[in-house]
Write a structure and sequence with these properties.
Largest sheet of chain B: 6 strands, mixed, barrel
Number of helices of chain A: 8
Oligomer: heterodimer
CATH architecture of chain A: 3-Layer(aba) Sandwich
Radius of gyration of chain B: 31 Å
CATH class of chain A: Alpha Beta
Helix content of chain A: 25-40%
Radius of gyration of chain A: 18 Å
Strand order of the largest sheet of chain A: 1-11-10-4-9-8-7
Order of helices and strands of chain A: EHHEEEHEEHEHHHEHEEE
Distance between the termini of chain B: 28 Å
Structural class of chain A: alpha/beta
Number of strands of chain A: 11
Order of helices and strands of chain B: HHEHEEHEEHEEEHEHEHHHHEEHH
CATH topology of chain A: Rossmann fold
Shape of chain B: elongated
Largest interface: A-B, 28 and 24 residues
Strand order of the largest sheet of chain B: 2-3-8-5-7-6
Strand content of chain B: 15-25%
Distance between the termini of chain A: 16 Å
Helix content of chain B: 40-55%
Amino acid sequence: MLICPALKTIFRSGLPYCDNISRYESEPYSNENLMAVVALKDVHKSYRAGDTELRVLEGIDLVIEPGEFVAIAGPSGSGKSTICNLLALLDNPNRGSVYFNDQNVEELGDRELSLLRNHHIGIVFQGFNLVQVLTAHENVMLPMEIGNTPVDKASSEAYRLLKEVGLEGFEHQRPQQLSGGQQQRVALARALATNPRLVVADEPTANLDTKTAMQIIDLMRNLNRDHGVSFVFATHDERLLQRVSRIIRLLDGLIVEDTMQEAAS
Amino acid sequence: MLTWLKIASRNLYKNRRRSLFTIAAIALGYGAVNIFGGFTAYVFDSLKESYIYGRGTGDIAVFKRGLFDQGRIDPLRYLLDKQEADTIREYVEKQGIARITTAQIKISGLMSDGEISTVFIASGRVPSEYHELRSLAEGVISRIDNYSGAWLSDDTPYGIAVSEGLAAKLGQGKGGSAILSSPTIDGMVNALDVEIVQTFQAGSELLNDKLILVPLTLAQELYQTDSVEQINILLRKGLDIKTTRQQLEDQLRAAGLDIEVWGWEQLVPSYFKIKNMFDIIFGFIFVIVFTIAAMSIVNTINMAVMERTREIGTLRALGANRSSIVLLFSIEGTLLGFAGTMGGLLLTFVAWAVVLILEPSWIPPQFTTRIPLEIYLLPVNLLVTGLIFLGLALIAAIPPSLRISRQGIVESLGHA
């Protein structure tokens, strides 16, 4: 098992410090001339519940490299979903910065952020979140249509992706006519529709049985390998962690472990 | 855009019961506004026709300056003498602006059958010209026969038409005879034997026991004058009344005549009072209907937004920006509005066809006769109110969609 050099530094110094991220302050981040997909720098996030402030993340530093297959693990309430939301640019930190493709997203307006999400980020939700009035094929086309891809091109790409996730013959089914595993496959195809740099999945297997969950994770890993897309997914299922090459463990809003490993085949 | 149209229309279909209620509210509102608007247009048009053709004011009237101001007390001092009347007629004829030019004089006095005497108010007209003027009416007035007996004739100088109330008061009818007496313009008393050739319904309860219609020559003979009170002109079609009125007045004054030229609406100021009343009622109805339709649309879009908050969060997560969300719900609102206005249009046509087939009639306030009830189909009104309802549907969808589009994506996604 390999330990991320940055985490080693943190553990040794005891400082909330990440060697790679610190370079953002002076120069664009690069790792062997390859730009990080997304990076969180000293990110704090809290929510207000009535008069109580609930601190979810407390100074997170995290870099996701191109092509990585990363699992964020931890118990409920440890901040997994919040990190996913920040990585997918769905939320803003209370403090700290989020960099996507070397750009501080704080500087971006709604239109630019939307474009960034559409072109570069695929998202898979725990509850699948397919648009119920659209067929599987139309759901996969949706991000491309939002991004103004010509309809013919979007349609053929959607057919190809559905075939790739094993849903050939189910293209014209509505979500309610598909099983949970099939819906999540549609969601995966949808996440890959715009050929993104990053796919973020928040507990993508939580609503699935073990066998289907394994199939989905394997499918994600294959897509990661075939498309070179970075995958980050949150899970509290320890069995799935064998399938990933990097595990980030969270506890009470802090990264307590960031390990590289050889993924089991 | 097509993607949003697809999602919007399918969501409306998915919630078809709710959509149908909203469409029905818009359709009923739009239909009600059109039907009432068509009815008021018919009322205004009928009123206008009744003044121009029924009363015989024509489009414009030429009379001595001051007749309707100072002349109200002593109208006989404000008559047009024969030379003036002839000059006006010749001038109008030369200009080629008139379809009909006819003179009239209003007189009053006592009508008696030898036993009973009662007050009369009369209009002295040239029977053939007045008949021709009435016959040119094209609307509802042309279909009203409010008299019985023969029409007055130029060849029957002492044949008169009497309102039914007056005939009843005197116990006379068609073929009866009476005596008309009145002071002449010189202050003497004059009386003439007349024959009742026609009875008619005056069109107004107040006048139905006073009004009579007499040949102009009879009225002039009774008043011992060859003057007339006014020259009524029915203009050629297409001529603008206001412009022509002003031009004629300027030209006749330049020719040395001390006259005024009024349009028909100046001669019957009650028209505007009635029109204003209907406009106010229409305004109230429009506001009420508009509010109900707006509330219905806002309610539907609000419910759609609440139910689909998570879907909105998903769309935002997939890269749809805020304006796309507003566009999506605006399309839904517009589709509801379009379906509603189409339904309303259908209702309007159905109501119009039913009225056309059943030919109902009614007695308007102050009227004594039943007149046909109609609903006008006015394309411009249909279009304008249709666009207003469509705009309303669009605008009503914007606030809830704007609100939800500004909500945080995570918050939207977390919505149950």
